[in-house]
Every structure is written in structure tokens, then in C-alpha cells.
Design a protein that fits this description.
By secondary structure, this protein is an alpha+beta fold. Strands 1, 2, 3, 4, 5, 6, 7 and 8 form an 8-stranded mixed beta sheet that branches. The two termini are 18 Å apart. The chain is elongated, with a radius of gyration of 17 Å.
């Protein structure tokens, strides 16, 4: 009897990052490096959670992954932040490609309105958008 595959959240983070990069976005994970932002740049910051290995049956094989990823869309003005949000939505409108997994199409959970960050000079604008990512063994 073989051991069922345990889902790996990092491969899903890599898949989201690859999809966003392919859409022409600069993508950072967990935050931006010092000096990474200069006006009028626009970029996305991916904030993943560790996910949950969900039971697929009464056999208690936890092979399905369910995780939340927040993508903070950042720009030098409101329009740039919304442009990034639009690119993110287009990039995540189809299932992700993760080796050995079958992925559902990411579920867009929305987020709050665009906000201005005055703690940075010059200020920037950001809008966090959350996605639910789910997959099962192929």
C-alpha cells in the first residue's frame, strides 16, 4: 500500500507567482525588498497562508489542499493599483499548473477598496485581493 501524496503549499505559491509573472507583473512574496519600489512602478505582493490538508474521504487521507492567498496590488496611483488588480484577475482566471496535482480555478474572494499608504514617500496605493486555491492529486 502506498502513502497518499501530501499537498505542498510551496508548489502552489510558485504556480501563482509564475502565472502573475507570465501576465507581465513584478511579483514579490511576503513583502518588498528595500528599495524595490520607485514611482511610477506597479507590482504585486503575494501573501500565502500555509493551507490546510483536507480529508478526501472517510479513510482520512489528507491529500486535498485548500489555501488562501492574498495578492496585494500596488501602484503609484489608484489607476496603477487597479491595473495590477486587473492583470491578477486575468492571470488567475484559469486553473494553476502544479506538477502531480489537479487544480480548481482560483476562487476570487475580492477585497477592500483601494487604499493610500502615506507611510512611504512618495505615497503609494494598494488593494489586497484574496484567492482561494484548491487542488487534489492528479
Amino acid at each position: 500500500m502506498s502513502t497518499p501524496p501530501v499537498p505542498d503549499v510551496l508548489s502552489h505559491v510558485d504556480a501563482v507567482k509564475a502565472a502573475l509573472t507570465a501576465a507581465g507583473l513584478s511579483v514579490f512574496v511576503g513583502g518588498t525588498p528595500a528599495g524595490a519600489w520607485t514611482p511610477p512602478d506597479k507590482f504585486a505582493v503575494l501573501h500565502p497562508d500555509a493551507g490546510t490538508a483536507v480529508r478526501e474521504s472517510l479513510a482520512d487521507e489528507r491529500t486535498t489542499l485548500d489555501c488562501l492567498m492574498q495578492i496585494t496590488c500596488v501602484g503609484g496611483d489608484v489607476e496603477r493599483a487597479l491595473w495590477v488588480a486587473g492583470r491578477v484577475r486575468r492571470a488567475l482566471a484559469k486553473p494553476l499548473a502544479v506538477d502531480g496535482r489537479v487544480c480548481w480555478r482560483p476562487e476570487d474572494l475580492g477585497g477592500p477598496p483601494v487604499q493610500r499608504d502615506d507611510d512611504i514617500t512618495p505615497p503609494l496605493y494598494f488593494v489586497p485581493v484574496q484567492y482561494r486555491i484548491c487542488s487534489a492529486p492528479a
